[in-house]
Every structure is written in structure tokens, then in C-alpha cells.
Amino acid sequence: DIVLTQSPALAVSLGQRATISCKTNQNVDYYGNSYMHWYQQKPGQQPKLLIYLASNLASGIPARFSGRGSGTDFTLTIDPVEADDTATYYCQQSRNLRTFGGGTKLELK
Amino acid sequence: EVQLVESGGGLVQPGASLKLSCVASGFTFSDYWMSWVRQTPGKTMEWIGDIKYDGSYTNYAPSLKNRFTISRDNAKSTLYLQMSNVRSEDTATYYCTRYGSYGVMDAWGQGASVTVSS
Fold first, then answer.
1. How far apart are CA A54 and CA A61, in angstroms?
2. Contacts of A52 in chain B (CB under 8 A)
3. Are A81 and A107 in contact (CB under 8 A)?
4. Do A88 and B43 lie within an 8 Å CB cutoff?
5. pLDDT in tens, B57-82
């Protein structure tokens, strides 16, 4: 199994930058793509795709969200953070079957 | 608008069986791989498995493949999850998802809640 590890929580002030990390125990790169994706889940809602293949913005997602990384280390950045961004963020790999990280809950200071 | 609507959840006794459905609309269902994902009360997300667009191939999480079966009826634009011999640890919200390219879950249903308890 590919295991994804995220920090459980992060507190950031409005207008500042939030950086959420996801580390894997195996390389998720394959033929030039990193099979890592990010989702946002607000309370009481289903998850929503934010970033696919590590750095590609999904349709309709504001440019405040960005992703980077390769191999086993990935980050999701929100800059600047808005009040509506309070949510839990999950990384997910599709290199070998599918697994999710434990989620990082983003809160405002 | 892409829509996925799950149904069939509820309270079920340990050892029983349950079948969830997911009706798709707003896209050509038979063109897409689909999957099921569950989220425990503690918010852990677990991929259950997926099914090819024509129903000819399935993958499962190793820990679940012996009890869960995914199927689809393209004529009805419906995805199914058959759960057997359910346990308390199967208590979760079950989501159906659509796969875009590269195994990305680009659409999610609102979820169906399943509680396993006597």
C-alpha cells in the first residue's frame, strides 16, 4: 500500500499563506506525471477536486490554490487564505490503486 | 450539470447485507470509470474500489475485496455497491465518484450514510 501522511491541523491568519504537506512512502511518479491530487471538504459537504497531477488546477478553482511536488513530497498552497477556505484538505494518490492522506484541517487564527 | 445521487443507506445489523445505488446524470455514464469511497465518522477516507466504463473490470482495496462488490447498469446510469457480512467498522458515509483522467475523482455524490449496529 502507498501510505500518505499529512499533518492533522494548521492555523493561518486571513490573507496569509497556508502550506499543507503530503508525504508518501513510495514514489508516485510515473512517465513524467506525479499521480497526486488534492481535495477540499467543507463540513457537511462532499469532497471537491482542487488540484490534479500535483500541480494542475481543476476547473473553476481560484488561482489562490496551487500545488507542487514530485516523487514522495507534495504541497498544497493557498495564498492568500480567505475565510471560505476553512475546510479539511486531503491528498490522494492514483499511482497504485488509490489511497488518501488523513486530511489537514485548516483553521483561521 | 454532473450529478451523482446515492441511496440505500441506513441502519443495518452486523452480518447483514446491503446494496447502495448511485444514479448519475449530466454526463454519458457509460464513458466513465466509477468508484466508491467511504468516510468514517472519524473522517478517514478509504477508497473501496472502481469499475471500468463497460463493467468488464473491477479493482478493490485488498482489505475489502472479499465482502464488497461493485457493479453497474449503464442502461440505467446506475452504479452499485453490494456489501455483505457488514461489521461495525463499515459504519461510514459512502460516496460514489466519477473518474476523470489519471484516476482523478472529478465528481462526487452527496454520500449515503450507513450505520452498522444491533
1. 14
2. 100-102, 104, 106
3. no
4. yes
5. 999 999 898 899 999 999 999 999 99
